[in-house]
Amino acid sequence: MTDAKTLAYINMYAIFGSLENLCALDSDARALLTNKKPISIGIEVKDGPAATLTFKNGRCRMEDGIAPCDIKLPFSSCEKFNGMIDGTVTPIPSKGFTHIGFLLRDFIKLTDLLSRYLRPEPEDLMDERFFNISTSLMFYTISVAIAQIGNNDEIGKFSAHHMVDGDILLSIKNGPKATISVKNHRLLTIKKAPEKPRALMEFSSMKLARDLFDGKVNSVACVGDGSIAMGGMISMVDNMNRILDLVGLYLA
């Protein structure tokens, strides 16, 4: 069972939040935003998440909450916002009709490109560059989704309640890294390695991480053969893995 509110937080911070990483990793994404005036989109969901995306100099930045923005997209419910993500709801701006061209052109191209990386065709993954970008974007998306599920999903919150304060290093060897920071049983994902992790979980390679994300290998077996390394306070990793098991349900 999935929860609409939890899914809305995942769609906001894990999916739309990955536009930051898309623009950093992909030259085509940067080209869509280069040599254009900066523009910001505020997205506000009633009884759900609110964030602002700013596009400037080929980059994207997400800030929590509604900052002063050029375009504002309000949603009356989490279900309506989730509907925009799955293509069943068309958003209507409450501000910024003069910038509608950006929404209909460049923003849709960016989200379509992100979707191509997050839901790739098998033949696309044969290209090494595409494979690495796609796997990195999946890693960041999953890392952020862990925090959103731990904070909002009832089963996820149960696991988070059993996590002590501290930082967990989640990483792919020679690849992307993230921090799952725990404080008072609330989780926050930071897209870089922590200075002093209290626990860690590292995948041995991009290929192994990809196989795990695609469900081709068993994580327990990987821990057994050492291709997934765990260390520090193992109870933190165990509870994070229980949350991780729920990520596939929401991102399916």
Structure characterization notes:
By secondary structure, the protein is of the alpha+beta class. The chain has two domains: 4-118, Nonspecific Lipid-transfer Protein, Chain A (2-Layer Sandwich), CATH 3.30.1050.10; 129-251, SCP2 sterol-binding domain (Nonspecific Lipid-transfer Protein, Chain A), CATH 3.30.1050.10. The protein is 48% helix and 21% strand. It contains ten helices and nine strands. The chain has a five-stranded mixed sheet. It has a four-stranded mixed sheet with strand order 3-2-1-4. A hairpin with a 4-residue loop joins strand 5 (166-172) and strand 6. Helix 2 packs antiparallel against helix 6 and helix 7 runs antiparallel to helix 10. The chain is globular, with a radius of gyration of 18 Å. The relative contact order is 0.13. The model has no long low-confidence stretch (mean pLDDT 95).
